[in-house]
Amino acid sequence: MIKVENLKKSFGDKEIFENISFILNRGEKIGLIGKNGSGKTTLFRIIIGEIELDEGKILIDKNERIGYLPQTLETDFEKTIREFFSENQKIEDWQIKKYLGKLGVYKINLNRKLKTFSGGELTKIALSRLLTKEPTTLLLDEPTNNLDIEGITYLQKFLSRLKGGVLLVSHDRWILDKIATQIIDLQSTERGRIAKTYPGNFSFYKETYLKETEKQEDLYYLQQKRIKEMKTEIQQLKQRAQKMQKSFINDKKKKSIGIMDLSKGSKIAGRAKSEERKLKKLLESEERIEKPQKENEIKFYFGTFLEKGQKALEVENLSFSFDRNNILEEINLGVYGKDRVALLGPNGSGKTTFIKILLGEIKPRKGEIKWNPSIKVGHLPQEIIFSDYQKTVLEEFERDLEIPENEARRILGRFLFSGDEQIKKLKDLSLGERRRLYLAKIVACGSNFLLLDEPTNHFDIPAVEAIENALSQFEGVIFVVSHDRYFLRNIEIEKFYYLKEGGFREFHSLENIEKVIK
Question: Is the pTM of this model over 0.85?
């Protein structure tokens, strides 16, 4: 058991969180969510003792063995797998292979250096090494970040079978749906950041949260109405008391003192003060209802669109090889106006290569690509690179766009860059903010065909939901490469292509793809 009681942590003047309390019992699987910067990683590092807390307690059962998987693997990447597993412990080769097998890593050369593996492969290797310590509870910080759809499916099955406890930080709502029995949401309130616990998986949490927010909004406006009425009543009582006081003074001057008016005026003034005390007590008490925070909303405004059925893109007999390896072989597909298409497949299967061929950045070995002349492609790459990181958000946004500054600021505002955020330097932006800025540029260019390569990478759940809401209103073509099944479902993808061993296999539902992966 891990018990967190009234935790508080600040870095300098910046308060990360306060009043954080929850319990992770042996065998429970809890999803920990919250906006980027809400303190999820900090909380993990406090639990394992890397960071000291300011106030509160962390109580860990004496028999608890905690295994922690950070977002970024910190090690010497010149090491081999064997050397990596042998750090601080004695372990035989057969044991290494046994634990690698638990995460689906088979037939691997133990003398291969870590630097030669992909991010997803390194995640599996690091988690496998963690299991050699036989932890009773796992703290996993964004373990799906670099995993492909097959890797995420394997991790989900592994965690579902695991008898130990799991505290999982993830933006992948699909895996939170599959394994979580509780969701802990680090929420920002006017009284600080709190940890609120919800039973069930992510979908149940979201349904409950939306109902709570709706109810809180109704109660908030009812209370605001009551507060307004109290303020009006206080003002009226004060005015009546002042009027009687003034009448008393005038009568005194006329030497006809109105004792009754003075007494009544004092009583009314007393009632006003009493009502003021009640109002102050309400505003400072736990009964005060906070205004619910509105969900982020991104609005898309694009140019002209093709009608449904008009051909936007045709790919004929496309093949591509690299170092004599056939990456793509005899690919044929057609994309039409208002189509919503997803391309899935294992890491390294050629998904990004296919996009680069569509954009003309790479030449195929053979085949033909035909674009409708009226198509204007908006491409969101996996890695965002700017030419000058000393520029501000506004300067970068205006660089390739011939629009007035007020219009540029208006569009940036739609993409959640407002006020001082528009003069923030590019070097100071998070990875998620860089992608959001790039998406804003695509919008401003009037794209009617969105080519999105892993669009949910580096976004927290609220930001992804804002993008989903925007894409649901988009009337152009969406062609997306993604492993985020929750995202693909929410933007209503109608056609799926699964790329493996050079070929495209067409599906019309995620469920059918999952059967193939299993």
Answer: no
